[in-house]
Amino acid sequence: MDPSGKPRHRAHVLVLPYPAQGHINPMLQFSKRLVARGLRATLALTVYLAGSMHADPSSSIGLETISDGYDLGGSAQAESYEAYQTSLRVAGSRTLAELIHRLDRSGHPLDAVIYDGFLPWALDVAKQCRKMGVVFFTQTCAVNNIYYHVQRGLLPLPLPVSEGNVRVPGLPPLKPSETPSYVYKLGLYPAFYDMVINQFTNVDDADFVLFDTFYELEKEVIDWMSANLWPLKTVGPTLPSLYLDKRLPNDTAYGVNLFTPTTTSAVSAWLHRHPPRSVVYVSFGSMADLDPSQFSELAHGLALTSSPFLWIVRSTEQHKLPRDLMDSIPSEEALILPWCNQLEILASDAIGCFVTHCGLNSVIEAICLGVPMVAMPQWTDQGTNAKFVEDVWRIGVRAGADEAGLVTSEEVERCVREVVGGGERGREVAESARRWMETAKAAIAEGGSSDQNIDEFVENLISHASTE
Predict the structure, then answer these.
(1) To 5 degrees, how large is the angle CA 123–CA 362–CA 220?
(2) From CA 280, how far away is CA 420, in angstroms rounded?
(3) Which superfamily, per CATH, for 262-340+349-441?
(4) Entry pTM
(5) Chain-wide mean pLDDT for the chain?
(6) By CB neighbour count within 10 A (0-12 exposed, 13-18 middle, 19+ buried), where does 14 fall?
(7) What is the helix (H) or strand (E) element at residue 39, kind and residue range?
(8) Which terminus of the chain has a smaller tally of CB atoms within 10 A, N or C?
(9) Tens digit of each residue's pLDDT (9 = 90 or more) over 382-431
């Protein structure tokens, strides 16, 4: 006990996610696991982002959130992504240091900064403030192994597109198009390329290296990276405990959303009207920007399947829908929503297939809830994730694009029917999805691979902190 009579926390960590939904969610959930083990965890959100998010205080389970000490310096309205990144680094470095000093004066001095790999400058600030630095990677080990090899000059670019497979230690042979788009389409996304490659400029100085995955999912690449790069720890899956081990009371949702979800009861009522494993769920996440022609092909393909579908189309994207077609489909057969609680949708017995862009959060959610996938990757790490979904984990099929880069309605129909049509391939991916669901839950359950890693991380963190 401290002099005030309050319980003394075993250590205090500041958690710094990159300001995007797919990065906040896993780091928030990991923070809850630390709190449950007696640590004090403070989640730092940018001023701009905190003001635009919808929070559910009931799911915070003792986590402190700060939004007034970490500022982008106006970069949310920056004229380009390059300017955004520069402002995030410059203003973020300054205000992060101020926040660390303020926390040190609060009576709960800080021991470590757990920062998103997209924010390597946070490690420099942590070291300047004499704090431990813990990097948390929110993409797979496979993807980050590719980026590491590029950053260290071990994978020369541009890729030899016409000379067969790309080979990276620990990974299966990859077609060039199965590597991340920043690598495959070199020069097309320069600011994003710099961001993902620069994750490794100072990573060797980090005190701990954590990955949002679980050992069994990426055993080969994890073994190689652990033996040749750093003694990394896998700490996923990072879903709310309700959907995994149920060991964290009241941890039923992520707790923050960039968009307001549709009322759960209305969605549940629609799903309950359909038989088990009959509904196709379609969502491309919070950032995808599909071309109107792709919207049209996807809509027509879904209609051709004759399966009921629930499609998440953000309000800013709904003007791209082929309205005549959508209006012709009975409301019992198609439900279009601007946003939803994706976990609740995937957990429904009515869902038989998930048409997804293959962002890692969506893939992991599908794995943990045993839902087969139709992969339609768009950019960044999604092509690599889709490769693993189909060929390594065998929990879905990839939709092939034509020469113009468009997934046609016929291809959409083929893939969905293959997964939900009751044929041999559909039965195979459904059974594989069920097995991976059990493996994912076992990893985070008591005594599982990730559960042990989190325990070891906490004890190591406390040991380091006590010697300072």
Answers:
(1) 65
(2) 8
(3) Glycogen Phosphorylase B; (3.40.50.2000)
(4) 0.93
(5) 90
(6) buried
(7) none
(8) N
(9) 999 999 999 999 999 999 999 989 999 999 999 999 999 889 999 999 99
